[in-house]
Design a protein that fits this description.
Layout lengths: L2 H85 L11 H19 L28 H9 L1
Length: 155
Amino acid sequence: MTKAEQVRAALMARSEETKAAKQKKADELKERTRLAKIEREAKEAAARKAAEEELKARQAKIEAEKAVMEAGEARLKEAKAAASEAEQPASSVPKKLNAKALSSMFDNQQKTADAEQKYNPFSSHFTGKRAVGGEGAYGKPVPGSKTEERAKAAA
C-alpha cells in the first residue's frame, strides 16, 4: 500500500469515527430530550393533580359554608315568624284582606307615623320647642324632676 492509500484509509477511518461520534452525540441528545419531556409531563401532571385537589377542598369548604348560611337563614326566618306572631295578636289581623281593609290598615299606620313625627326633633313636623345651645334651660334637667334631685345629690 502506498503512502497516499494509507493516508486515504486513515482519513476514511477518521471520517467514520467522526460520523460515529456525531451519531452517538445526536442519540444522547435525543435521549436527554425524551427524558426531559417525560420529567416535564410528570411535573405538569403532579401540578394538575394538586390543583384539582385544592379545587375540591375549596368546593367542599364553600358547600359547608353554604349549608351553615342556609341553616342560619332558616333560623332567622323562624325567629322573624315567631316575632311577628308575638307582635301582632291574631285578632288584629283580618283573615281575609280586601281592598277596604287594606286601605284602612294603611291609613292607621300612616296616622300613627304622623303622630310620632310631632315628637321627633329631627322631623320637619316637630311641634315642640327646639332647644338652642346657650339658652338658660338648655342641657339642664326639668326643674323639680328626679334628674334634678339626683344632680343636686351628686354635687
